Amino acid sequence: MFFRGSTESGGRKSRALQCIAAAALLIVGGLGTARAADGHRLWLRYVPVHGRWLERYRHAATELVPPGARRPTVRDTQAELERGLAGMLGRAVPSAAHVTAGGAILFGTPKDSARIRSLRLDLARVGSQGYLIRTLTVDGHRATVIAGNTDIGVLYGAFRFLRLMQTRRPISRLDIASRPKIRFRVLDFWDNLDGTVERGYAGSSIWKWGELPQYLSPRYTELARACASIGINGVVLNNVNASPYILTPLYLEKVAALAGVLRPYGIRVYLSVPFSAPITVGRLKTADPLAPAVQAWWRKKVAEIYRYVPDFGGFLTKADSEGEPGPEQYGRTQAQGANVLARALAHYGGIVMWRTFVYSTNPHSEDRVMQAYDIFKPLDGKFDQNVILQNKNGPLDFQPREPFNPLFGAMPKSNEMLELEITKEYLGQQTSLVYLGTLFQGALRADTWQRGRGSTVARVIDGSLYGERDTGIAGVANIGSDRNWCGSIFNQSNWYAFGRLAWNPYASARVIAADWVRMTFTNNPAFVRPVVHMMMISREAVVDYMDPLGLASQMEAGTHFGPGPWVHPGPHMPPDWSSTYYSRANAAGIGFNRTATGSDAVSQYAPHVAAKFASLKRCPPKLLLWFHHVAWTYRLRTGRTVWDSLLRHYQRGLDTVARMRKTWAGLARYVDPQRFRLTADFLTIQQHNAQWWRDASIAYWESISHLPLPPAIAPPPFPLKAYEAFCIPYVAGTPGGKPPCAPDDGPVPY
Fewest CB atoms within 10 A around its CB: which of 355, 362, 468, 590? Predict the structure, then answer.
């Protein structure tokens, strides 16, 4: 149990360590320091076990039996087991060459361990990245065997074994076989070379380019450990709005240094590259993908990258989107643009993750959410095999709630991967407590019906629906220089949930939340139960007070922070960047008509799904205003009008945050003061923000609908003009460098 006021030192101060090597290991791992709990150690705290669980685990590691090989990953696996067991059991764990007593841990691959080879384990079923954990009798003694076909598989197995102990699961009779269902499990860092982070809310970039390659921060290894513990095996180092300088020798040498740190943990590096690089770096006059000189330039550049990084993963590209150059400006297709990169990488086994976030800002163009489908669907089968189309979970842009992206399952001859946003750009950014495991789970379980019932997004991206081999999932990271990595303690849970669902997209968001709480805080049920409940309702609360009933993009423009339902197109504001474009609110009603009588976006879905979304009666209420423009007086299935229901959602969201804050206030005795206070203060901020959203939104809709407020809804305390004038000029993570507004000298509502 974790007692209030204790430190994260892990080892028992009253007991001397049994050997100098183990002492050094504990100090390096952060276990021998007196630093108060501050979130830096994430879910890898390895705090001491007490009570009956100590009795159950005390023979868990009489000794470690490593394989004969001493490759970096093998050494890191042994170090992690020693670190974890010493922290939890309060003693150093000796390593031995032979199993001589009960409770030994034998780990390795058949290639390197004759003893594991002699056990004739069925390792074929776990592939190259999976593992077996099994309780067996070895040399007449009980032992826990952690085995895989590769070193990295064994490392993943070691982390899984330690997780069992961290979450107080029995380990006396284990029989676990696990392998990742998705091949490429990637974190996308939107970090710029100048140290800023676009849509990052955890300080400056973790990558210190000015110090590389000579100085390698210990945080890089800590990052690698955390990623490996949840099975993440790829990192895109730089922003999708990419600087071309990342491709120069100056930076490739730095990339190689980072790759060297991440490699032992099974993590490959990838780079975001601008489509215009042949011009900006190569000094060519064109970036036309069909130009022979351009094709030759990419081949030469890729060969150069692989000389620096022999296991380089490949490219991530954003093209023809938000001002980024792409093949469209040369009259070429997205497939022609992607394939020129893919063919340069193919010889080395590299891939191209080609984002489908492509749209025109022409004010007379079609419905924004339809454009990616209309551009990419006709190109199915025209992309090279090492191209994976990277689709956002919804057709718009990481909104609090969207329907699933209609591209999923609609391109059976092309590889598709899912892009999720771990950083909460539209969900309260660094301070709001929003567990995204439920959002990720909902996106993965969405049924496309492309091949009948059960054609879920998870089955599209894991290859089980159409049989693709190159499968992938990406998460836009929220990791920075903050001591706690993610800006807040609970933001860490979204990084954790992404990794767990990337390994197994069919896992339960609730189970993942419970594991994270147990590993991050305490196993005490009196704490775990209410906190998991709080996490599970948190995202719905934010949807309620931001974008209820299927509204979308009602945030302030630019910063994406705070309410802005009044934001309308202007000289520097394209229509589909405004809030009024999506609400379509007027005196008659509210919502975007995407049925056959409107933009007909419903037709991009499989017939079964399209019919459901197109029907006023069958459309889920939570997506009603995404697909339908309805009268304010239209009655929902509940019997309430849209007007009444909309207002009650705003109030319910605020009330839920107030309950979350009250729940947390009652848990102080289970949490160290530093992390308790940070979370309590952030929940206070979130409640203020929820109140701001509720009041400002109600004031605006009241001015549009001209309807009276129901008796149960308190009126906003300020007039609409006060909310419209309220401005926060500087918000972390906002690109561009210029404040989007200037505060006036009027009242400050919140």
Answer: 362
Contact between residue 320 and residue 334 where contact means Cβ atoms under 8 Å apart: yes
Strand partners, 616: none
Q: What is the DSSP letter of 121?
A: -
CATH architecture of structural domain 184-520 = Alpha-Beta Barrel (3.20)
Parallel, antiparallel or unpaired: strands 387-392 and 415-421: parallel
Domain with CATH 3.20.20.80 in the chain: 184-520
pTM listed for this prediction = 0.94
What distance, in Å, lies between the first and last C-alpha atoms of the chain? 40
Its CATH architecture, for the domain 51-178, is 2-Layer Sandwich (3.30)
Sheet holding 175-178, edge to edge: 64-65, 104-108, 141-147, 131-138, 175-178
Q: Which residue has the tokens 């400002």?
A: 696
Catalytic (active-site) positions: 322, 397, 425
CATH code 3.90.1330.10 region(s) in the chain: 521-592+632-750
For residue 645, give every residue at least 6 positions away whose Cβ sits within 8 Å of its Cβ, in sequence order, or none: 548, 549, 621, 636, 638
Alpha carbon distance 273, 313 (integer Å): 13
Question: And the tokens for 517?
Answer: 């709480």
Task: Report the interhelical angle of 642-665 vs 673-705 (nearest 10°).
Answer: 170
Mean pLDDT, rounded, for 440-452: 98
Phi-psi bin for 349: left (phi > 0), alpha (psi -120 to 50), beta? left
pLDDT digits (tens, 9 = 90+) for 552-604: 999 998 899 999 999 999 888 889 999 999 999 999 999 999 999 999 999 99
Task: Say if CB 187 and CB 477 are below 8 A apart.
Answer: yes
Q: Which fold has domain 521-592+632-750?
A: Alpha-d-glucuronidase, C-terminal Domain (3.90.1330)
Task: Tell me where in the chain the CATH 3.30.379.10 domain(s) lie.
Answer: 51-178
Angle subtended by helix axes 509-520 and 525-546, to nearest 10: 120
